[in-house]
Design goal:
The chain is mainly α and 71 residues long. The protein contains three helices and no strands. α2 packs antiparallel against α3 (47-68). It is elongated, with a radius of gyration of 15 Å. The protein starts with a helix and ends with a helix.
Amino acid sequence: LWKNVWRNRRRSVLTLLGVGVAVFVIAALGGAYMFLGKHLRGEPLPGTVVVLHGALAVAGFALLLAFLLGA
């Protein structure tokens, strides 16, 4: 993936956008699972999902920021 990133700049930027949105959506699904599936039922939140949710949200935000800044 990274080898081909700089081959075609326009396609690379669109790939960056697509990956950023996909990672953000996965983080949002994790958040929805925690809220709807666990929090509303009063169950403890699974630690792995909490950490993954935060890490994926930060990674998705960084990718989208890189897209906006024209990385």
